[in-house]
Amino acid sequence: MWEFILERAGYWAIIGLMMIGLFIAFSAENLIKRLVGLSLFMTTICLFYVTLGKITGGTAPILLKEDMPYHDASHAAAQTDPQLVAAGGERVAELVYTYSNPLPHVLMLTAIVVGVATLSVGLALIVRIREAYGTIEADDVRAMDIETELAQEAEAEKDLREATA
Amino acid sequence: MILESLLVSAPEWAIRHASVLIPVVPLIMAPMLTLSPSRRLAWILSIAATAASFYFSLLALAIVQTEPGGVIEYWIGNWTAIGIEFRIDALNAMVLLIVSGMGFLAAVFAWPTLVAEIAKEKIALFLSAFLLCFAGLCGVAATGDAFNLFVFLEISSLATYLLVAMGASRDRRALPAAFDYLIMGTLGASFYIIGVGFLYAATGTLNMAELAAQLPALSGNRAVQVGFAFIIVGLGIKAAMWPLHQWLPNAYAFSPSFVTMFLAATATKVALYALIRWLFTIFQPDIGFEQAIFTWVLAPLAIAAMVICSFQAVFQTDVRRMLAYSSVAQVGYIILGISIGTAAGVSAGLLHLFNHALMKGALFMAVAGICLNYKGTTIRDFAGLGRSAPFTMSALAIAGLSLIGVPLTAGFMSKLQLGYALFDHGWWWAVLLVVFSSFLAVFYVGRLLQTIFFEAPVNPRKNRKEAPLLLLVPLWVLALANIFFGIDASFPVGLANDGAVAALGMEAFQ
């Protein structure tokens, strides 16, 4: 039981952080806090992916000397080797070392860029909201919107009465 | 016929690279626009870029229809089997045609509304954001890679937040609307990549075709089931599936009228396409848990959307907000079609997707034309406009009737197909609810039409003002398409049937 929980410690941390981020993004009234929650949520996804790429005992995904087939020969020799050509240019030999999967890291580079872009657009919007409303509290903004709506409604009523009179 | 001659006349490079050029042309053009010296040049370039995309998606459709396998596979950079794949079959080709066609019409009609609603120095930047959004949507529809889909989804979404926020010059409420959309949209996309992560952990691949090949053997795997749930919720937020639609009414009501028209006709459609792709091509519907999701989650939510949002639409005073709620209801029809899970159901859903793009595009275009001259968008502002702007308003009336589903309009055809598919599946009670929801549409559209044509103008001093010609032409193209496809629906029905067959991976359509 304890082993089951503890050997997944990384995933528990991810779940916890993710839920905290989601909760902040939904519940905070301050718009900047909502963005903080959102970016916590997105960063945790990166953590999740990177955790997936880790293989027990695996090293960084850079080929070490023993795994390079022709580290002393020229590159051209590798291309003409019949064994490699037969396999469609893919390596067929077994690797000496275990390597972690690099693909999730690469995916997360893209996701980080997306996250930065989202954060900057969100902050820019907050600046504009602050200029237009003078506040960055979501409930104040909502109250002011309702006031605008009621004022418009009243004005329309007045117009209608004048038109019919 | 036209498609064949297009295929014959196309140069060899265009045929070979058509699938990837659809999103790439606007994607490259977007940063160019920010450098363009004049606003008018920026507008012409954006028309050229969307027209090029439209041409390439017609070409892709022609290739898909003539090719024996019906699939275009394109590996970016020739990295076969390990790189990113663009994969176009009959389903993508249909969605690409809708998106690029509506994008092209939107770009043509953009000019008068931009001049009226956007600050002079920002028009080129605005069009650049529009092209980014357009390229992202085309990319989502063209890609065959699960992670690449997320990237394109975020490209289009980030551009959409900007476009919605640009409505602030007219009404400051656009800003909180854009911010809410940003929070919800980002959460949706994040849910989607969490789901993709789970599937990657289970299968070790991100290619959709490869995933589809591996998943049936793994259907009992808990990680796969969790991934499925995350993906459905994420795409559900993007597609405005009830009850995840809260961002939509405000975003549509306060954004510039051009943006509303473009988004209503394309954005949710593309998310719905991705949903169909995941539900039918990648996860096959014969997997046990998916049938349960169809019957107990998607169908009830779709019906709730149809009925509740139609009710909400009846009580709106703002025309654009009313149409936005109606959009959520229409998404309900499409998801109801999908949730039947048969080829006929998916085909009906796709047909409604096509027709909904036509009618919402026309409706929001007409509303944009009214915004130009009369400013207000409440229903009262529309009083008596039937006399002062007869051409704009009769196009609006045609699209509105199509929205209700009056015979001889496109909307009737898709509701008919949906009804057949539901009857075949034995869900006759759902047919009754579709009819009931259409009856509610009679109320909200009828109220608008009655105000337009039979009430005296609120302010009689308003002079007779038609929408500009540049706006009337695309508007009438859409309105006539609504009638044409209501009388002879063979073209969209053929597309939808092919799309459903491609989605379900079947040999032929009965």
Low-pLDDT sequence parts of chain A: 81-92
Share in β-strands of chain B? under 5%
Number of DSSP strand runs of chain B? 2
Trace the largest sheet of chain B across and list its strands: 1-2
Question: Helicity range of the residues of chain A?
Answer: over 70%
Contiguous runs where pLDDT drops below 50 for at least 5 residues of chain B: none
Just name the CATH architecture of the largest domain in chain A.
Orthogonal Bundle
Largest interface in this structure: A-B, 36 and 33 residues
Mean pLDDT of chain A: 80
Structural class of chain B: mainly alpha
Q: Calculate the terminal CA-CA distance of chain B, rounded to whole Å.
A: 24 Å
Number of helices of chain A: 7
What is the terminal separation of chain A in angstroms? 80 Å
Just give the CATH class of the largest domain in chain A: Mainly Alpha
Largest sheet of chain A: none
- In terms of structural class, how would the helical and strand content of chain A be classed? mainly alpha
Topology pattern of chain A, helix = H, strand = E: HHHHHHH
Mean pLDDT of chain B: 86
The percentage helix of chain B is over 70%
Largest sheet properties of chain B:
2 strands, antiparallel
Task: Describe what you observe in this structure.
The complex is a heterodimer of chains A (165) and B (510). Chain A is mainly α and 165 residues long. Chain A is built from seven helices and no strands. Chain A folds into three domains: 1-60 and 103-134, Orthogonal Bundle (Helix Hairpins), CATH 1.10.287; 63-98, no CATH class; 137-165. Chain A has helices spanning 2-6, 9-27, 31-53, 75-80, 82-86, 103-133, 138-164. By secondary structure, chain B is mainly alpha-helical. Chain B has a two-stranded antiparallel ribbon. The mean pLDDT of chain B is 86. The A-B interface holds A 22, 25, 31, 34, 38, 41-42, 45, 48-49, 52, 104, 107, 110-111, 114, 117-118, 121-122, 125-126, 128-129, 132-133, 138, 141-142, 145, 148, 153, 156, 159-160, 163 and B 147, 150-151, 154, 158, 161-162, 165, 168, 172-173, 175-176, 178-179, 182-183, 186-187, 189-190, 193-194, 197, 200-201, 206, 317, 378, 380, 458-460.
